[in-house]
Amino acid sequence: MSPATRNAAWWIGGLGAALLGAFAAPVPGFLDAGEFIAAARELGVIHPPGHSAWLSLAGLAELLPFGPVSARVAWLSAAFAGVAAALLVRLAGRIFSAREPDALSVTFGAVATGLTLLASGSLWLVATRAEVYTLALLTNLWALDAALRAGDEAETGDAGAAPRAAVEVAIAVALGLLNHHYVTLFALPAVLAAGWPALLGPVGRPRTLAVLIGAAVFLGLGYLALPLRAASETGVRWGDPLSLQGLWDHLTAAHFQRSVTETGSGGGMATLDSAGLLLFGLVRELGVPLGTIGLAGVVLLGLRPNRRAFTVWLALIGGLLGKALMQVDLRNPDDHGYALLAVAAIALGAGSLTTTVAAALRRAHPRNGFLAVATMALLVIGNVATLVASPDHAPWQQRAPDRLDDALREPTMPGGLLLSTYYATHFGELAFRAAEGRRPDLCATHLSLRSGDTDGGRGYARYFVQRYPEYAALAKGAVANGRAPIGNVLQGAEQHRVVAELDPDNQIPPAFYDVGPVGHRLLSDRERRLDYVPGHLREKANRGWEALYGVIGSVDRLDHPTRAYLLWQHTLETAHALRRGWIGPAEDALARAKAIAPADASLGILEARLAKLRDAWKRGDARAYADLWRGWAKLDLSAMLRPPAP
């Protein structure tokens, strides 16, 4: 590999990390991101297969001296993506130099390969948020690069260098297995093809045996992190890795795999159909021109079959097959994350075609080779500009609180309980509660309490019952029936703290973020903690209650249980708003409560608290205002409804 290609790898890697980091989400983001951030900070366990390597490395985000933790972990994903791009440039240089003597054209092709990867919307979907897939791509490309180097050195007769490269392959594969062994296993055929026969030559030698034993011990110690984290009882619990059977279920993700392999159960044609759909999605995320060039380059590589061509083809097939055996949903970032190795193969195809064209142009005139690179650069810039404009691919404008946060926190008291069938609730709340350093506002049961994607919800149900013993029967019924029984939930809502199912039909939209300034992610946790818009909350609450009262009707409101429930809810909302220092929402909620029970003594106490808060606001006494609501924030509902001590 030429020095120019090595230098290009560094530049491409730095560019990728900086670009993706600049447009990464400063808040937890959609689905898994919140869970990952919270688990990394709180020693929790994330969903199967546990991703031990990622969890261990994600703790390094704490070392950064600025930015909220959620943004720091997202930047870590961007950094992994940058390193992966650098490794892909190195890999491309090795592949292209074997058939093209023009070193500058090879460098052109390697640069085009790295830029094509960075222009992939599939990469942006997972590299701009806290996710494990960029680390998986990094370890797979590291293994491929080391394996190709081992094969090359074995062919040239370098007896010492080939075994060293093989050990590097073992390290990269072991890290990959610790992070996401499913994705890594589908990359192994490409790794073996790249290192053939160097990876099989030393089999049976004592040194090889020692490396294999060392890798096995390394994996065992790495996976030991899961039961240790599960024993910490932080509340970020999936399954039960504390037992051998539970650890096996967690590592194999047996329940999850059963729930997502329905499409693949149709046989070979169903898998082929899913692979075609996935390939179409990956090409679309690159932009049709750039993706078509990449596919054409992969096809042309196959016209001259050799070890390097087989490596690219097996990387493409492995990247597709790893997800095609399951359900494919191109709207889900996870599906693109599973297939990132296939994206890298398409990028290698684009770089290969660029190398060929650049070499042909340079033979006509030495300067003409830049035309091929300029064309590719324009295509890359065009697709990157499209990605930057997309909030799904570049979530840099997301900020807290998002609409989901507004919807849940508005009617929920601190420490309250929420039962919801909305699958994103638990992820997001754990992030706000743990990763952002916020005071616990609610405990939301996730789908692990009601479905079979991990261990049927038994692990989380145990944690849930520890926090709320009075709901042991409810948790048991939810695990048995696959869904929290709504009748028991409503009965509990009349007797205990907040228990509600706000979204029984999963209608909360996935894109639930408001827009905020770029510099928001640089604020400290303390500065971000009060980032609410009371006016927006007030309008939303009023719209919601107007719609609800319109449905209930004046006659139904005369029913005693209905009046009692409405009074309880409005009282709760008033107390919650006072704890936050939200004068407007508190006024509206109190007015609704007093319309039901004008002489209620508890409402008189809340009204007196509101008057104190309003008076401090009118006087402009910021210290008194803050002291009031921060003092109330430490009280539960019953304490808020008692007269304050003189």
Number of domains: 3
Oligomer category: single chain
- Bin the strand percentage: under 5%
Strand segment count:
4
Q: Which consecutive residue ranges, at least 5 long each, have pLDDT under 50?
A: 401-415, 431-442, 496-532
Helix content: 55-70%
Mean pLDDT: 77
Biggest pleated-sheet summary: 2 strands, antiparallel
Short description:
The protein is built from 30 helices and four strands. It has 646 residues and is mainly alpha-helical.
For this entry, give a set of tags.
646 residues, 2% strand, single chain, two-stranded parallel sheet, 4 strands, mainly alpha, two-stranded antiparallel ribbon
What does this structure look like?
- The chain has about 650 residues and is an all-alpha fold.
- Helices cover about 65% and strands about 0% of the residues.
- The model is unreliable at about 400-415, about 430-440 and about 495-530 (pLDDT under 50).
Write the layout of secondary structure elements.
Elements: H1 3-22, H2 32-42, H3 52-58, H4 69-97, H5 103-118, H6 121-127, H7 133-155, H8 161-195, H9 206-223, H10 225-230, H11 244-252, H12 254-260, H13 268-286, H14 288-301, H15 307-324, H16 333-338, H17 340-364, H18 369-388, E1 398-399, H19 403-409, E2 416-419, H20 425-435, E3 442-445, H21 458-467, H22 472-481, H23 486-495, E4 514-515, H24 525-528, H25 534-556, H26 560-580, H27 583-596, H28 601-619, H29 622-632, H30 637-640
Parallel strand pairs: 2-3
Antiparallel strand pairs: 1-4
Helix pairs in contact: 1-4, 1-5, 2-4, 2-20, 3-8, 4-5, 4-7, 5-17, 5-18, 7-8, 8-9, 8-15, 13-14, 13-15, 14-17, 15-17, 17-18, 21-22, 25-27, 26-27, 26-28, 27-28, 28-29
